[in-house]
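Quick bug: MFS transporter output formatted oddly.
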Amino acid sequence: MKLLKKENERICTIMAFALIPISGFAIDVYIPSFPNMVQDLHTTAAMIKLTMTVYLISYGLSQLLLGSLVDSYGRYHINLAALTVFTLSNIGIILTSSLPLILFLRGIQGIAIALIMVSRRVFFIDVYTGEKRAQYTSMLNVVWSTAPIIAPFAGGYLQTAFGWRSNFYFLAVYGLVMLLFELIYGGETIKERMTFHPRTIWNTYKTLFSTMDFSLGMVILGLSYGMVMVFGMTIPFIVEQGFHASPVVTGYCALGSGAAIFTGGLLAKRYIKKPFLHKLVIANGAQLGIALLMYVAGGIYMSIASIMVFVVFIHSFQGFTYNSYFTYCVTRFPQYAATASGLVSGGSYIIFSIASFLITSVITIRNQQSLSLSYILLIVATSIILWRVSSALKKQPAAVNTTNSAGLRTMSGIDQ
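Here's what came back:
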């Protein structure tokens, strides 16, 4: 077995961070190509959106189920196999015009990306401890949020210059380069393997799901990121069909959204030790107020710029909320690192992929008011879950205060 060499820890840390945005790139890079894909593949907007939904559900379900596999059989070889499959699936999409085959390959990509993400996220828990582990783990979502900044922006130019298939050329090259680096410098990092036994796995999942702050956290994360997904799935049609602008403008809009999420993630990292539930309630209330103002303003005046002003503020608070709760959850159970990481990420992906698809199917989002209405629904749902978490935690005995590696008080110790 090829173990990670001590002298390669630094470069492998950089490689792990370089791989973290890959799931976001697989979502966002081809967003500006949606209208062109509708025309080229002779299909509907709903079917093109379905290529994203299939990927997200596959990715989410796979993380739910495959985290225990990575805890049992290690990180390295699973990561290599997943990178190979991801690269080949992109080549398959490039070579076909069959929508059913594209949907199938996107589902395969979801499985491959799930394995990549689970194995790379727990790299920091395997290799580092204490404050360094907490800081690196908090950086995960900050680094991940570079994908919504760069991917649609680059995708807009790729679409304009070369067409929609160029996005999947980009993803194939990305996967291949990271595969080669892993082969040269990577190695196994797991220190103690979990027994791959149904009862052991069941008990692990039972522990995680029965922990209220963890399980409800998946719902909060899913509803929170659902706002970003609704924006991503609808902004190409608002910009390119509603305002008759180019895919490059869609890319700039996505750039603004991604920069806002990135900024919110940095703020969450800065305020990591502030009272956990209190800061989430403030962020949620601010989001709701901005979304309501966005709805009212949309009836008076609307432009791409006015939409983006509100989106930037709402997505900044979204990035803050998501980073804060995700960091909390992934460091909650270091003994089940890959399983916990896969469960919280997978569960949230399933929730936001279904929520965003349902909202975009029920609400025809064509302008500022309809977009703000979708935000309001998701924010109100998040408020209800936060209230449920707060109520449950207040009933817990005050004596049971514990602290996880992210510096956050857990279960009954949160904000009592």
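Actually, after a second look the formatting is fine. The first strand starts at residue 402 and ends at 403. Closing.
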